[in-house]
Amino acid sequence: MKLQKIINRLQKLHPKEIDLSLDRIKILCKKLGNPQDKIQAINIVGTNGKQSTINAIFSILKEAKIKCNIYTSPHIQKINERFIFDNKKLNDDELADLLEEVEKINNNHPITFFEILTASYLFKAAQYSENINLIEAGLFHRFDATNIFKSNLASIICSISKDHLDWLPKGQRTIEKIIFEKTSALLNSNIIVSKQNSKETIECIKKTILKNSSEKLFFNENFSYSCGENSFFYYEDKFGGLKLPLPNILGQFQLENISTAIATLRQLNMGIKNNDIKNGITKIESIARLQEIKSGKIKALVKDNRLLLDGSHNEDGSRVLNEYLQTLDCNKHLIIGMMKNKDHEKYISYFKDISSLTTIDIPNQPNAISGKELKEKFKNISNAKYKKSIQEAIKSLTLKENDLIIITGSLYLSGEFLNLN
Fold first, then answer.
1. What is the chain's alpha carbon radius of gyration, rounded to the nearest angstrom?
2. pLDDT over threshold 80, residue 229
């Protein structure tokens, strides 16, 4: 209750939820003693794969007995997920105390909710100056609250695609503009570029960071992987090759994210052993990223059928999700809810051979598109139907043995599912 009251107060400090600027957070961080100058950070930018890459790095570092602080957004179930220090998530009382302390120092000055959360994270992270900080950029990066460092260990550029176009000026809603916003202000240290979805995207990234003096590593040029037989894959970079077990998470795209994580850690020469990598990638904790649900109240409704939860919500996320689904020989039932500001038609265009599609409402999210309206956007799909809730959608399905149910379209929907389950 105390935590929620503080959150409610912080959300009222600025009339806009998002107001891209660095002035307010720089002022607050100065009052906090500029904690961003006291920590070791790896910054992660991009559109898709940021959380998965962070999860892989975190798992390898834990195996190597190297402690981490982690800052991510948005959260899936509880805001505490955004605040990990010394490898542990803050509990409600710890987070309430942290936010309350920073709130007092801020002294009611206007600041967005994300900005004061970021300042709070940095303030706490400075208490663990020996730890590695994994910091995910929020919206874009150039004017994002996480972009106030003078130096860092590395910047990772994950897959970039079109998303959040409504935050760009009309006439500039292009992939080139998105790449500029995400990569033009990266620090001079190390830049590791994950696999991108087109040659044009890679070339645009190279052009944007051309004058950045960082050492640059590009997927398929400086590091790569190939799939082997008998549940192994092969990773290779300038330090040599590694024969690695397949990870404990689903999807070919995860090998791309894991390879980027490995390339980053080997580039930083942190004393990580090959066995730390081998063991770490088999213990990755991943929520709402092709997560197989094996128990719970909602899982009970599908009985012996497989149930997957995936928070993909833009065209690139849809593409990689469907690359995985195409490897499965079974009937696939899609349950989907989305936010209003997404390209709904583009998102759904990647789905092939779907046995049924059910749109639903996302409760408690005023910026979500209604399931009925979403169904109308999918009118070219003959078997599309609408149900109000996840439970009603599942109960309406005619399932056969080995059928697969996929719940997708939004991280907010994923959080709702996990809370219900």
1. 21
2. no
